[in-house]
Each structure stands twice: as structure tokens, then as C-alpha cells.
Amino acid sequence: MAQYPITAGVFGKALAVTGKAGIESPSRWEFLNQSGITGTNLNGSQIYVGSGGSVAVILADTIGAQDTVTGLSLDPITAGKDYFTNFGVATTVTSLVHKSPANQPSGLTVDITAELVTNIDTPGTGYTTGSYSDIGTGLVANVIVVGATGAIGSVTVTDFGDAQIGDTFDPTTLGGTGGLFRLTSFGGVTKAVVANAGTNYSVGDIITIVQAGTTSDATYSVASTGSLLPTAIDQVVFEVLAGAILPVAVDYVLNTGTASNLIALR
Hints:
Layout: E1 14-17, E2 46-51, E3 53-59, E4 68-72, E5 78-81, E6 86-94, E7 106-122, E8 130-133, E9 140-146, E10 151-159, E11 168-169, E12 180-199, E13 206-209, E14 216-226, E15 236-240, E16 244-245, E17 250-255, E18 260-265
Antiparallel strand pairs: 1-18, 2-16, 2-18, 3-15, 3-17, 4-14, 5-14, 6-7, 6-13, 7-12, 8-9, 9-10, 11-12, 13-14
């Protein structure tokens, strides 16, 4: 393959580059930085390498994931039914914003909290308020008693373990006799937060939380989106001779590696 000389041009400003650096969007150049926060962005600088070796950089104009979901509506549009608390739950999306087939929104997963519904079949007597755990299924519940008789007044399940709909429980570890509550259904989603932000979403998109066994859908709207900076996976590593200038424009120097005496030039 033929080789061609690169004309670097004339530079008016120089900035020493040392060690390792993170990816922080404010400019490292003071004359370009209006934020008051010193970042590591070299804004398409040329890099002079005084002592040769390897250097890891991110090329100018490299971007990260675009239009990722940064927030969902605080309350669901519909809470759904028969959901259970879980993490990294898949979603589908309905969007009114036209996008090309190659840029359809996808990849959003959410951590959800769902209400578990119980029924007190018989309240019993002599119980004390406290946390009840069932050894067989792993179900954990907060039991509240009412009145002087110590009857079970309410049960809130905090971890369903391996419990199944219809299972019955007598919280004997809380004392008392004759009490019985039953797990009647996994309930509606009360909270959803972003786990994996996905790409190509728009504010107002409607996402549906997908979980096996549900009998009606829980839906939320996308409240905010943002675009991400590149990451270390986008880096390019060069092996450079001493006294050379990298033949590319650079936004970030992530690691000077074995090279030294690096200078950013503009």
C-alpha cells in the first residue's frame, strides 16, 4: 500500500498530556471551555509524541450510544396485573416519532417493584406485629396485628421467594393461633427505573414491561433521554515513533501507554 506524507500545519497552542485520563466532556483547553469545569476533551487536537511507544486515543467526533432513556414517568400509565418485583425486565415500545428501520428504539430494560396481593382468610388471635418468613417457600412478609386480641390486620409481602398464587401461610413464629393468609395474586407495578438505557428512544415513547404470566400490561412513558459519551471500547491504540504526530484528530487520550512526552496541539 502506498504511503503519503501528512502535513500537520502550523499550531498556535500546546498542552501537555500525561498519564491516564477519563472521558469527561468539558474541554481540556481553557480557551474553548465555557463551563468552568476542567474536562478531558481535546476537541480534535493533533498529538505530538516526544518519546515513541503505544498510546490509546479516541478519535475526534466519536460518539457513544444516542437517545438513551434517562428517566421514566414517576407513575405508570397502566399498572398492569400479576407482575412480580424483578430486575432487568425487558420492554417493548410504541413510538409516534418516525425513525428509519436502522434506528428503531430498542434495548431498554427496567427494574420493577410490584405490589403482591394477599387475602386474610382468618385473622386469628394472639399474634404480634413483625416480619414473618416462611422456610418452605422463602416468602417474607410484614404482618400487622390490630386490636387487643392480636388479630392479623394486614400483610405486606416484601419477597415472594418460591411462593405460588394460592399458597396459604400461618405466621406461627409471631405467636397466636388460628390465623391464615393467602397469596392471591402478583399485583401491579408501583415503580420502574431504568436498568439498561437502550438507544434511539424519544420523549413520549410508551414502553410496555414484558413479564411472563401477566394478565394485563404495565406501561410507562419515557420522560427524558440523553446521548452518551464514547467509552473505552471505542479507543484506538497507535504505536508511534519518537518525534511523530498522530495522523488523526483526537478528542481524548485515554492512556499514554509506553509513549511519553505527549503534547496536544491546536
